Amino acid sequence: MALKPYREDHIVVPRFCEANGFYTTPERSAMMKRVKAKNSKIEVKFRKALWNIGLRYRKNVRSLPGIPDIVFRKYRLVIFIDGAFWHGYEWEKRRNQIQSNKEFWIAKIERNIQHDREVNQQLSDLGWHVERFWEHEIKKEFHVCVGRVLNYIKEYENRNI
């Protein structure tokens, strides 16, 4: 099945380098190197909770668009756990708070937001249900987030009986 083309023009993110006028301190650079793309503490905690209640999943499935953090093939459910900064939580308010390298960071985060929408659409077109949780949402309302997953699975099973 061919995917529908995404209609929005891609946001171009300039390369982060001194030649383009972007600078960073060694301390900031060291901090950024510690940012994890997968297996963050909150992601591991969430997966363990799902595993402990008997739900079996795959993690970081590269064959699906966006490489979802958690995949339930049986239920056609994918889960992404998004960091507030990288995925633009309350972006309209927060974009004005960026102090340095604004040209790069604003384009970078807006491209991430656009990419998330594209991935959601692609997965939806392929028949998958997409759940996105903010990292802070899982920290503050852990049981509510797990409950959302359980509710979807129960609804799925009831539809397919």
Secondary-structure topology with pairs:
Elements: H1 26-33, H2 41-52, E1 58-59, E2 70-72, E3 77-82, H3 84-87, H4 91-94, H5 102-125, E4 129-134, H6 135-140, H7 142-159
Parallel strand pairs: 3-4
Antiparallel strand pairs: 1-2, 2-3
Describe the protein.
- The protein is an alpha+beta fold and 161 residues long.
- The chain has a single domain (37-159), classed as VSR Endonuclease (Endonuclease, Chain A).
- It is built from 7 helices and 4 strands; from the N terminus they run ααβββαααβαα.
- It has helices spanning 26-33, 41-52, 84-87, 91-94, 102-125, 135-140, 142-159; strands spanning 58-59, 70-72, 77-82, 129-134.
- Strands 1-2-3-4 form a 4-stranded mixed β-sheet, with helices on both faces.
- Strand 2 and strand 3 (77-82) form a beta hairpin.
- It is globular and about 60 Å long.
Percent helix, as a range, is 40-55%
Distance between the termini: 26 Å
For the sheet with most strands, the description reads: 4 strands, mixed
- N to C succession of SSEs: HHEEEHHHEHH
Structural class: alpha+beta
Instruction: Identify the CATH architecture.
Output: 3-Layer(aba) Sandwich
CATH class: Alpha Beta
Q: Mean pLDDT, rounded to whole units?
A: 87
Instruction: Name the CATH superfamily assignment.
Output: VSR Endonuclease
What form results from the Cα inertia axes? globular
Q: What is the CATH topology assignment? A: Endonuclease, Chain A
Domain count, please report it.
Answer: 1
The overall strand count is 4
Strand order within the widest beta sheet: 1-2-3-4
Tell me the number of helical segments per DSSP (H or I, 4 or more residues long). Answer: 7
